[in-house]
User: Fold this.
Amino acid sequence: MNATSHAHRRALARTAVGVLMLAASAAFVGCASTPPAPTASLQAAQLAISNAEAADASRYSGEELGAARTKLASADTAVKEQRMIIAERFAEESRADAELASAKTTAAKAKAVNDEMKRSTNTLIEEMQRAGDKS
Amino acid sequence: MKPVNHSGVIVRTTLIATSVAAVLLAACAAAPLKPDGAAEVRSKLTELQADPNLASRAPLAIKEADTAVRAAEQPQADKELGVHRVYLADRKVQTARALAETRFAEDQRGALSAQRESSRLDARTREVDVAKNQADVAKNQAAAAHEAAASSEQEAAELQRQIDVLQAKVTDRGVIVTLGDVLFESGRAELREGSAGNLNKLVAFLDKYPDRVVAIEGYTDSVGSEDYNQALSQRRADSVRSYLVRQGISSGRLTASGMGKADPVASNESASGRQQNRRVAVIINNPPTASR
Assistant:
């Protein structure tokens, strides 16, 4: 019984040491490295803004494009302040804003084309009715 | 131990268990639920998915939006992260809607341009119809004018034929039919038996042109007194008038007057000249509403 109890105690000690080491290493990793700058997110946001600008979003969806620019600027500031998690969130929101600006712009343009088609058809019908009244 | 004590232990244990459960429950209730705004974003997405015009038109974007909404709905201890996820989800739903609307607008274009084409065709058909109608009207008018011209030409020709039959002369006063003195015995005013043929041509003419009024004028030669000639010419004119009335010509259209030996048409020196001067002239006036 004694031998058994001894072996059991040793096993327990080993486990405890293992757990301690794991926790320590986790804590060490967490402390040692500040999270890296969210470069990919920042680049994606910048690209989305450029695309929106190219699509003339400032004309059709100025509010969203403005929000995208402001948030990208906030993301850059956060990076400088080493607040990387905040920076990443700003970058993601900036990208979402810019993509919405692009989508709204495209939709507005598509509707404008359709409206023009409807308008010209209606003009044609009106002219026809006028001509019909005359004859 | 007494049974009562035993049961007391059970009661106590139960109480403890209950309170522990209550604490656990409270912990659950206090645990972060869905972040604020997540429900609104979900309902926006549901609305988009239920729109028959849009739901099928941006499947990928809607799927992404759905993923984002699900992430936003995760109970979140970090309140700022929750707000962030709701914001992203909202933007993705809006983006998906805009993309679907774009696609919908593009899909409508086929129908719109077909509509425009058909209106354009209608307009052209209508123009052609109008032009054709105008051409038809013009053609009909021309035909009518042609017909009218033809019929007036025909009428004129017919009148001329009738005038020829009467051996009449067309003058400014009208058509003048001269009835020679062969109608009458010398010195008398009664119509001869055989003169009806010539007069009946006149009756036929007057029947055909009922709007023309007629002046009947009697003339004599220069033989005999003025009074005698005047009276004789008057009686001869009256005689012709009576005959015409008897043939059914309205007396209102007829005037008769004796002109005596006035207006000779030939010399009274010769017998043949005097014969020509003894005459009755029937002047058929042009209609009062002459169309020319």
The first helix of chain A runs from residue 2 to 32.
